[in-house]
Amino acid sequence: MFHSTNKRKERGGMSIEINFPEKILRRMNFSDKYFSETKELLKEGDYVQASEKLWGAASQMVKAVAAKRNLELRSHSDLNRFVAELRREANEPEIRRLWQIATSLHQNFYVAWLPVETVKESA
Predict the structure, then answer these.
(1) By three-state DSSP, how is residue 1 classified?
(2) In a domain, 10, yes or no
(3) So what's the pLDDT on residue 21?
(4) Which helix (H) or strand (E) holds 19?
(5) For the residues 32-44, what does the mean pLDDT come to?
(6) How many CB atoms sit inside 10 A of residue 121's CB?
(7) Can you spell out the DSSP letters for 78-108?
(8) Could you tell me if residue 48 is inside a domain?
(9) What CA–CA distance (Å, rounded) separates 102 from 8?
């Protein structure tokens, strides 16, 4: 669970303090919660629900990044446009590939079309 003041260890034992605004913390905590729930669902063999939790974790982290920029993403379209913007800014194609995995997991919740191995590997 993330708190408004988090300490993170850096190399050499030096620690820095990071203060997150509440709106960002809320999204980060949801992401963490969904990812934790995924682990249990995978153990139980509920791959469809695990898919949706993985999507939820990814989408909440994207929303946390948007919140840091004082943006609120309210739709799938908003999420997709923002991720495309992040990819362009970072000049990092891996962002697109990872987001495509997340959206495939979200689709899997509705149609259960992904092989079990794909869901497990995506976690």
Answers:
(1) coil
(2) no
(3) 85
(4) strand 15-19
(5) 96
(6) 10
(7) HHHHHHHHHHHHHT-HHHHHHHHHHHHHHHH
(8) yes
(9) 27
d(CA 108, CA 87): 24
**pLDDT for 116:** 96
Q: What's residue 78's pLDDT? A: 97
| 30 occurs within a structural domain | yes
Residues pairing with 5 in the sheet: 19
Give the residue numbers spanning the domain of 59. 17-114
Q: Which residues contact 2 (CB under 8 A, 6 or more apart)?
A: 20, 25, 28, 29, 32
How many distinct structural domains can be found in the chain?
Answer: 1
Query: Taking residues 28-56, what's their average pLDDT?
Result: 97
CB-count burial class (<10 Å; 0-12, 13-18, 19+) for 29: middle
CATH of the domain at 21: 1.20.120
Helices (H) and strands (E) in the chain, counts: 5, 2
Can you give the pLDDT at residue 7?
Answer: 44
- CB–CB of 18/49 below 8 Å? no
CA nearest 52: which of 111, 107, 120, 118? 107
